[in-house]
Structures are given as C-alpha cells and as structure tokens.
Fold each of these.
Amino acid sequence: MDRSELGATLRAWRERLAPADVGLPSGVRRRTPGLRREEVAQLAGVSVDYLNRLEQGRGAHPSDAVLGALARALRLSTFEHDHLFHLAGSTPPGPGRIQSAVRPSVLRLMDRFTDLPALLLDAKMDVLAWNALATALLGDFSALPPAERNVAWLRFAAPRSAAQAGSRIVAWDPAERERLDRALVSDLRAAAARYPDDPGLLRLVRELQSRSADFAQLWELRELNERHSDRKRVHHPDLGHIDLDCDTLLVHGDDQVLLVYSAAPGTPEAEALELLRVLGLQDLGAPTR
C-alpha cells in the first residue's frame, strides 16, 4: 500500500470534480476547487475523519468495499478504479469476478431520474448507487457500512442494521415475502453459477447460510426464476403502504441491474411519489452513492 501516493491521488481526484458533476448543489462560493471532504465522505458512506486520514497518508488499509465506494463517489473510470485498488495494495476484480465498478454514464443516467426512485445492484445484489428519491422512499443506505449494503444481507442476516438505517428495501408485505424471498435467493443462485470463483459472493452465501435458516432452506431448493419486472409494496413510515411497479434494466457488459420504481399517472401511488419528491428530499440532501 502506497499511502502517500494514495492520499495525493484521492485529493487530486476530489479536487477535479465540481458539485454539479455528482448531483450536489454548488452552494456558497468555495475557497478551494472541487468537492469538499465532507461531500465525498457522504457520497462514499465513510466518515470524514477516515477520508482525511487516507488523504494524509495515515489511513489503515481500506477494504475492497470502501475502495469501490470511493471509486463510485469520485466517478472514476474503469482504468482509474483499477489504479486505486493497486495504490491501496489490493487486487482489482479480474475476469470471472463480479463487476462492482460503476460507469460514470450510468450515474449520470440515474441523476436524470428526478421523479423516480432508482438504485443500482451488482450481480451479488450489493447496492452500488442510488438517487435522492430512492433515499426518501427506501431509507438512507449511506448510514450502513459499505459491506452491509446488500439486499440479501439486509433481508436475511442484518435486520437490526436495516432498521437502524431506516432501510425499507426489504420491508416487504408479509403476503408477498415468501415469493420475493424465493426470487431473491434464485437470483443469487444464478449469480453463483456465473461467478463460481468470486470470493465476495462465496463469502456472502456462506455467511447467509450460517446466519439464516430461511436462506439455507431456500438455497437448497435450487430454484431459478427469471424476472424483468415486479410489483412491490413499500412500507413508508410517513406515507403508509405504497404499491409500486419495479422494472429491472440490465447494464450490458457489467452484469448490473438498475431498479426503477414507478406508478401509473393519476394514482394514489403517483401522488405519494410526488409528495416524496417535493417534501421528502428537503432533509435528505443530494443524491448519495
């Protein structure tokens, strides 16, 4: 790990970004160019003190999850993403490994979904990115450690963390829970066939099997179900039950999916989303990644 060069590189990449590049308001006049440490820390889901230590060359060895979160926050290209891993003394994902780097073009696309909640998942269901309306609807993923931002983990292994973060992505209607649980495990089973040697996926499955009897039982069924869209009920603490269409858009080449929640115009659900857009974001800030 080249701490000095890692810190200098992180500072340079932070200073080259404008707030508008990551969907943040410019605010008052800035004394220095680029993003503030507080903004990058918020986008990456790490503490300001931790980022400060990394930039000063004093930080501990960052995990792959933290490196990926920093790469997404800084809008790094694939080449820059791999360079960041090398500077940190880590091996970037290679062939046969799940791709968790996010294309800047995909993040720009998500920025345009100002009236629809959207979040991006990789093949093992890590939540890689989300927009402001997804935060208003589903909870604050940045309140979770990067390693716990995983749909399967939140559903089967970490209900307390999900509750503490206010995450409602897995707060499914009891009548639909079995069907959605089966579909979730089916997606993981299919990913395990595509990436039999991915260490992150292997570790996730082992931990879920040891922590959750429900997951272990469903895993042994070896069910496979192909899905492109769904309808889900979200339990929002202020707005109550909201039934939304959830469409899955595939990011070709990266084996990532963009989940977009929507409602038919003129319905109570569409009015609820509009209320979230107008009121719910006032305290939630800008898009978080």
Amino acid sequence: MSVDTLFSLAGRTALVTGAGRGIGKGIAVGYAAAGADLILVGRSASLAGTAAELEGSGTSVEVVDADLSDLAALPATLSGVTERRDVDVLVNCAGVIRRGPYVATAGEDWDQVMAVNLDAPRIISREIGRGMLARGSGKIINIASLLSFQGGREAASYATSKHAIVGLTKALANEWATSGIQVNAIAPGYIATDNTAALRADAGRDAEILSRIPTGRWGTPEDIVGAAIFLATPASDYVTGHTLVVDGGWMSR
C-alpha cells in the first residue's frame, strides 16, 4: 500500500462534532483536504462558517443541527443521518468547560459538562457504531485532554469527564476490535482555543504553562490535524484503545 493510500480519506465520510471552531474545525478542514466528505453535527449557526469555508473544496459538507446537551433527542437526530449515509469515521470533539472551585460548582453546570463531554459521545458512538458493526469497519476518535491524566485546577467536572472518555475509548476498543472498528483518543495539550482564552489572558498562568512546555509555545488546532488523520486512515488499522498525546512535550516534564 502506498503512503498516499495509507493516509487518504478519499471515498470516506466523516462525522465531526464541535467543528464550528478550534480543534473540531481544524480536524474538519484537514479531513476535507485528505478527501473525506463531511457531516458536521452541532448548532447550525456555529457550523455555518466552517461549511462556508469548505464550499468549493470538492468535498461534500452536510450540516446537521443538534443540541448535544439534549441527550433525549440525539438518537432520532442520528437515525436521520444513518438512514441516508454510511459514516466511516466519527470524531467526538465537542466539549465544554466550567471553571471554578468544586464546592461552588452548580449542579446544572456539572450536568452540562457531563452531557456534552461524555454522554453525547457515548450516545453518538452507539448510534453510529451500529452501522460500523454491520459493515465490519470504522474509526472512532474521541478528543480527550491532558486532564484525562491529571486533576487540573478548579476544573473538576471537566477532568472527570475527560478521564471517563478515555475509559469509554478503551472499553469500546476492546469490544469492537474483532468487528474491524478501531476506537482511539487524542489528548491535546494546551491549545490556543476559546476554551483556554482565560488561561492565556492571565499573564501569570500563561507564563507558568509555557514554562513547562518543552516546545515553548501554545499549540494550535492545526497541530492536532495530523494525529486525527492518522487515526482515521488505514495507517492506523492496527492501533486501537490508544490515547495519543499531542502536547508539545508537556507530559514528558
């Protein structure tokens, strides 16, 4: 198999959540460049910019409006997708973070983080996974975090959800490996996105973070694209249950 074939997504359809901005948008744009057709799931208003950017790229882009925190509605939304399309690659990227002391964390804030970061991925993986199981092939990529391994600071709900998403990744990888489905995760380091804006705006915290990153800079969404393409293509057919850390060396310190 040629290198071009190993890393090609030509003829494949990828469903990506959280593609309106940041890492999700970077992955969607990267997948389009690798030849994939795209289904972007989330609030249509937030996805409009990404869809417009990809217009004329030669790839098919479908936007499916969904509130990922409305867990009861997700199965019906996804059944509408799977009735029309075979999804070869699923990227669960949408995520939210609520920062603050644990004792002051409101129950509704905790529940929203769990709904978007953990429960939506488990439901989407189940609904999309059914078709993959029937066809005997598929790739699922969950977006984890450095807080899948660490506790962080004043982000208990986020850290808990990201620990759990790695557990879900391993469990599904074990269960579905013999059915030709690979389930992996990517754990981005400190990436310059809206979710980290508050940290970057705090001069002291920004300097503290940069001092631990061997590459000496914040990552960008584009830094995650190569890993996402690898895990979606035939190049990773013997990789499953793995969490690939892309962090500029943070975890090595």
